[in-house]
Amino acid sequence: MAALPCFLFCLLLFASPSLQSQTPPDVRKHLKKLNKPAVKSIKSPDGDVIDCVPIEKQLAFDHPLLVNHKIQTKPNYHPEGLFEDMKVTSSAAESVDQKTGSIKQLWHRNGRCAQGTIPVRRTTRADVTRAKKVEHFGMKKQKYQAAAPRFQPQSADPGFIQTGHEHAIAYVEDGRFYGAKATMNVWKPHIQDSNEFSLSQIWVLGGTFDLDLNSIEAGWQVSPDMYGDNNTRLFTYWTGDTYQATGCYNLLCSGFVQLNSDIALGASIYPISNYGNSQYDISILIWKV
Ligand SMILES: *[C@@H]1O[C@H](CO)[C@@H](O)[C@H](O)[C@H]1NC(C)=O
């Protein structure tokens, strides 16, 4: 009988401090907020876990403004015809979805999410820990915020360098636009340093840089800092205030509402283009309803 209290005591003594030190409370809390209960989880070959989360349970609806939000399952305006050229030209036909012609993601090899659920890349403790501050996880770093393309004439030259950030852009400005579409080849650029990244994206901007820049971005990125590997991943980003207090990648904060059950934001794109071999591209269309 005397052994029992000691047994309990020892267990507590050993178990609780080690759990505490493994995952700091703020990280644990953040992970709990991001990773919603899934009806099914799929292990991707790249190490990701993809959680199939009921549409109405996604993080977006945690926002006070979206409580009791009525989910719109179809846009009230759909730019007809703009999806018809989304065919993939490839000799590696087996890696491309035969029915839709659309490119797969790596996790599709191990399963799919059912209709009514959305695939969400599960955020790991390591992901959050790589961020300097837990509350900044999923947001662009301060030092890159200044690297958004200010539309000065000289910045239209491809390959110019601004705050260590090289990019080439093509753009239109000053007009009334209701949408934009971009098709981009999907590559896996070499990343020299873990805090560097490489990407290709479509970027829709409104407002002014010094005040209230609104941005919607989508494309692919290789970002070891963000994902812990060098894979080419699909991403989205948004901000409503010049990258200051609002916005994030993918579904890492309330913002984008996802309906699609096939594509996981932040998950690896597969297949990707190779030099002297098959070429793969993604098309992204952003429009106002
Ligand atoms: C990513 O690539 C770099 C350089 O090629 C390499 O040093 C690094 O170990 C890779 N990172 C991971 C997580 O595989």
Overall pLDDT: 82
Low-confidence stretches: 1-20, 86-101, 151-161
* Helix/strand class: alpha+beta
Bound molecules: 2-acetamido-2-deoxy-beta-D-glucopyranose
SSE string: HHEEEHHEEEEEHEEE
Helix content: 10-25%
Strand content: 15-25%
Q: How many individual helices?
A: 5
How many β-strand runs?
Answer: 11
Euclidean distance between termini CA atoms: 71 Å
The general outline is globular
Largest sheet, strands/sense/barrel:
4 strands, antiparallel
Q: Spatial order of the strands in the main sheet?
A: 7-8-9-10
Tell me the radius of gyration.
21 Å
Describe this structure in words.
The protein has 289 residues and is an alpha+beta fold. Helix content is 15%, strand content 21%. The chain contains five helices and eleven strands. The protein has helices at residues 3-22, 25-34, 125-130, 142-145, 224-227, and strands spanning 40-43, 49-54, 117-121, 160-162, 165-167, 179-185, 198-206, 214-222, 233-239, 248-249, 281-287. Strands 7-8-9-10 form a four-stranded antiparallel sheet, with no helix packed on it. The protein has a three-stranded antiparallel sheet with strand order 1-2-3, with no helix packed on it. Strands 4-5 form a two-stranded antiparallel sheet. A hairpin with a 2-residue loop joins strand 4 (160-162) and strand 5 (165-167). Mean pLDDT is 82; it is low at 1-20, 86-101 and 151-161. The chain binds 2-acetamido-2-deoxy-beta-D-glucopyranose (NAG). The site of 2-acetamido-2-deoxy-beta-D-glucopyranose has 6 residues, from loops.
